[in-house]
Amino acid sequence: MRWPDGIKCLRCNAAAKIYALNARSFYWACCNEDCGERRGYRFSVITKTIFENTNYSLTVWFEVIYLMGQSKKGISALQIHRQIGSGGYRTAWFMCQRIRAAMQDKEFPKLMGEVEVDETHIGGKEKNKHASKRLHAGRGAVGKTTVIGAISRKGNVVCQMIENTDAKTLNGFVRKTVSGNVDLVSTDENAAYH
Ligand SMILES: [Zn+2]
Fold it and tell me: What is the tally of structural domains in the chain?
């Protein structure tokens, strides 16, 4: 998930001369000379992420993220501490702090990689409706709900109902949901996407 196009060194960004460590899974050493480590710069899948430097497994971290995400009124570090059932209160507090800080990052929920964007009208056709339900207002999008969606080819999808399909609305949606670091955005020929 972290390196969909292959592992890169977190220090020098090189993709060559990266070797997996036999002794520890999800650890690598970068042996590029400019990286400046005689025995290789060592990093793991969680290096330079919020999950670094705790004794908790990613499974516990994900559980905490789930608990924070699904609680409607917010959840205290004390409640988290009781739920995960191990470690000290300080650690639970520290995890909550880090997760909250990460959620502040506006790039965090945005789609990356290859993203497709399209919009469609959802709802029954006028001609299939009972006469009393017909709107008699023309063809096409009449009486339908317009929905726009963005999907990353690696998984996540964001959908939203929109009032109209003008350039301002479509552009606003794309800016809000797609990361500035995206590799490719593909849409149809609708000029509003330009
Ligand atoms: Zn390196």
Answer: 3
3-state secondary structure at position 3: coil
Same domain? For 94 and 131 the reply is no
Q: How far is the CA of 87 from the centre of ligand 1 (A)?
A: 34
Same domain for 80 and 17? no
Question: How close is the Cα of 26 to the center of ligand 1, in Å?
Answer: 16
Whether residues 92 and 124 fall in one domain: no
Tell me the pLDDT tens digit for each residue of 94-126.
Answer: 999 999 888 887 777 788 889 999 998 888 776
Domain of 41, in residue numbers: 1-48
Distance from the CA of 3 to the center of ligand 1, in angstroms? 15
| Ligand 1 mean position, distance from CA 112 (Å) | 24
SS3 state at 100:
helix
Task: Report CA(18)–ligand 1 centroid distance (Å).
Answer: 8
